[in-house]
């Protein structure tokens, strides 16, 4: 969940200071407030304070000003020369009978390349005239957006209007670039401005050029950050051991980069196999490593809102949390990466054991329970006095009734005594080394229902791991069938059903299965196959 330390929001804007619209980067209108009205009588001091530069910045925390120009005497770059060849002709003005003082001060011909109070009703670029069908991905439309922003930031003497214009520029430079023709103008424009956001916008533009353009509008977190002049965004990430840490992310951070940053901070041997997961509503979805982090969260949030509209018609509000966990267990060997074992592997494998997904003997269960007890309580034996209430937190659910409570306590205490002096961290690794011997180690288990094949029970346990896909009897834990990824075919239909073929497409077993976690199965299978193909290509390259 995003947690930012932000200053209080700006004060209420009076009706007469309502903004004048300018086109935003996504076709809708953004608004920049107009300059204050002219008066014939000098206002009182309290009214003058509303228009002062200090009042405009009240409640704002600005970034430390940095000069972008090489010389204080440098003239800020404008689009005046560029407009001659690329902008549409300015509209002709008609003389009205009533001439106000404000209108008399305006130039006879509208200057398209500088700030204007009037809404921009037509594109600035000649190439965009009469081309309303162009969408966001069009380069010429991106040029139009940047031209309009630079225009409104040229000779704009209204401080609040200028501030909001720079906020929009900061957001845009982190989302998309412009054409090579305009890039020189945009870069010079940002370099020659003294506004504190200008340099950061130039840096964001260069990162966007390097890392690629975003697919979706900015996330609300990005909008709130720049609105409060906080150009650094820290995002909280949760781990399986119930700890969390904050990591810096920006508009160009992809999931793969985010994972590498977390892996480095936690001193993991490698980020391979790990993934970010976003938990929103009742779904936990893996973030594709090639996606921009904020793009994925924005798209996922919008999708949830459309799929679950509120009954009263209001916009639903969904919060989310980000988790970092092991997803692919292809090269996982207990003891090879101690930090990964302690923070991730143990805490992700323990719930699977307690739910009774693994095929486990009573002797193995007692030994594993002793390790779990030591992880939780160390060398303290006092908790054995409340053992009946503790049993379900130590022993697999399907084995609890196989022995009496006193027998379980006796066997677990015996193994606990044999490992006297072992640290909780070493107990986690010993726990993993025992489970590693089972074929279901590192599996993701899915409970499904099928009624098409009488050779299988109505309820099945499907395990997906580095070996492929296995069908397991939920009661006996006997493997009913196991195939490698390329020998198993799944076709997902809607949110609750999927067809599964084990073996040959013609003679193989065909099942119609029901589950609400089909999206997870689909993603996991795709990820394992992708990793398998990547490793095969690497081996071929090494052989050459």
Automatic annotation (TrEMBL):
Location in the cell reads:
Cytoplasm
Record keywords, A-Z? Actin-binding, Cytoplasm, Repeat
Q: Which residues cross the membrane?
A: none
**Which Pfam families does the entry mention?**
FERM_M, MyTH4, RA_2
Region annotation (Disordered) maps to: 63-94
The family database entries (InterPro entries) matched by this protein are listed as: Band_41_domain, FERM/acyl-CoA-bd_prot_sf, FERM_2, FERM_central, FERM_domain, MyoVII_FERM_C2, MyTH4_dom, MyTH4_dom_sf
Quick check: keyword Repeat in the entry? Answer: yes
* Gene Ontology CC annotations of this record: cell periphery; cytoplasm; cytoskeleton
Ranges for domain MyTH4 come to 86-227
GO BP of this protein: animal organ morphogenesis; system development
In its UniProt record, a GO molecular function of this protein is:
actin binding
Please note every region of biased composition (Basic and acidic residues): 72-88
Stretches assigned to coiled coil: none
Domain annotation FERM: ranges: 233-544
Fetch the SMART domains from UniProt: B41 (SM00295), MyTH4 (SM00139)
Give the protein family.
Belongs to the TRAFAC class myosin-kinesin ATPase superfamily. Myosin family.
Classification via PANTHER family:
MYOSIN, MYOSIN VII, XV
Q: What is this protein called?
A: FERM domain-containing protein
Q: Which organism is it from?
A: Hyalella azteca (Amphipod)
């Amino acid at each position: 969940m995003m947690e930012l330390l932000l200053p209080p929001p700006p004060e209420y804007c009076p009706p007469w200071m309502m903004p004048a619209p300018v086109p935003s980067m996504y076709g809708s209108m953004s608004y920049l407030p107009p300059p204050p009205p002219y008066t014939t009588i000098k206002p009182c001091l309290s009214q003058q304070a509303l228009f002062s530069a200090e009042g405009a910045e009240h409640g704002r925390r600005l970034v430390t000003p940095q000069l972008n120009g090489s010389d204080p005497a440098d003239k800020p770059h404008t689009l005046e020369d560029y407009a001659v060849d690329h902008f549409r002709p300015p509209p002709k003005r008609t003389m009205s009978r009533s001439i106000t003082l404000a209108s008399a001060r305006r130039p006879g011909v509208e200057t398209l390349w500088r700030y204007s109070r009037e809404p921009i009703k037509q594109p600035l670029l000649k190439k965009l005239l009469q081309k309303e069908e162009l969408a966001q991905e069009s380069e010429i439309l991106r040029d139009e957006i940047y031209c309009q922003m630079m225009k409104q930031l040229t000779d704009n003497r209204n401080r609040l209007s200028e501030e909001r214009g720079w906020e929009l520029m900061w957001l845009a430079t982190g989302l998309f670039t412009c054409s090579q023709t305009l890039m020189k103008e945009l870069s010079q424009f940002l370099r020659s401005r003294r506004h504190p956001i200008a340099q950061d916008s130039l840096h964001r533009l260069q990162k966007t050029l390097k890392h690629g353009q975003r697919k979706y509008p900015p996330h609300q977190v990005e909008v709130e950050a720049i609105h409060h002049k906080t150009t650094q965004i820290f995002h909280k990430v949760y781990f399986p051991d119930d700890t969390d840490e904050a990591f810096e992310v920006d508009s160009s951070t992809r999931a793969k980069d985010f994972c590498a940053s977390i892996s480095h901070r936690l001193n993991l041997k490698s980020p391979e196999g790990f993934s970010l997961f976003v938990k929103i509503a009742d779904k936990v979805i893996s973030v594709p490593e090639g996606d921009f982090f904020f793009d994925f969260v924005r798209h996922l949030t919008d999708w949830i809102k459309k799929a679950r509209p509120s009954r009263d018609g209001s916009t639903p509000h969904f919060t989310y949390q980000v988790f970092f966990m092991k997803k692919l267990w292809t090269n996982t060997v207990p003891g090879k990466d101690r930090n990964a074992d302690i923070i991730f592997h143990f805490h992700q494998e323990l719930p699977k054991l307690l739910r009774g997904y693994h095929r486990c003997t009573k002797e193995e269960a007692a030994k594993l329970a002793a390790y779990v007890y030591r992880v939780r309580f160390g060398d303290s034996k006092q908790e054995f006095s409340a053992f009946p209430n503790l049993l379900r937190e130590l022993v697999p659910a399907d084995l609890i009734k196989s022995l009496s409570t006193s027998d379980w306590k006796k066997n677990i205490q015996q193994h606990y005594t044999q490992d006297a002096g072992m640290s909780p961290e070493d107990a986690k690794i010993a726990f993993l080394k025992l489970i590693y011997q089972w074929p279901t180690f590192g599996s993701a288990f899915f409970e499904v229902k099928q009624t098409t094949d009488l050779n299988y029970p109505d309820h099945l346990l499907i395990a997906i791991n580095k070996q492929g896909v296995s069908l397991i009897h939920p009661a006996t834990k006997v493997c009913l069938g196991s195939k490698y990824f390329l020998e198993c075919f799944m076709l997902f239909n809607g949110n609750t059903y999927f067809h599964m073929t084990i073996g040959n497409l013609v003679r193989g077993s065909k099942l119609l299965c029901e589950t609400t976690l089909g999206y997870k199965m689909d993603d996991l299978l795709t990820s394992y196959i992708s990793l398998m193909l990547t490793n095969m290509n690497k081996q071929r390259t090494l052989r050459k």
